[in-house]
Model the fold of this input.
Amino acid sequence: MYDLTKLGKLKDLGAAAPEVSKAFWAFDKAAMPPGAISGKNKELIALAVAFTTQCPYAFHIHAGRARDAGATDQEIARDGRCNGCAKNVRNWTMNAAVGQNPNSFRPER
Done:
């Protein structure tokens, strides 16, 4: 069950797997600053990924970062409306990965 206080357990994960934690935070630091793609758009992309993976913690973090980078509630909500599309892409990908014919894919309604 989603519980925002569980985000504090990231420190426990870091202590249990320091190399993995170090690599994750290095990736985050390197990938998210503005460059060819603005920081706001990177966070909106990360938000779309959070919808695709259905991770409420990533959604919480990236929605906040997107707002901090200047995204409006309308932009964040627009990405939320893409959630159904994201689920369909995820299902199609998973079907293909397990050897099911992706052409037999039926979108969620």
About this structure: Residues 23 and 83 are 29 Å apart (CA to CA).
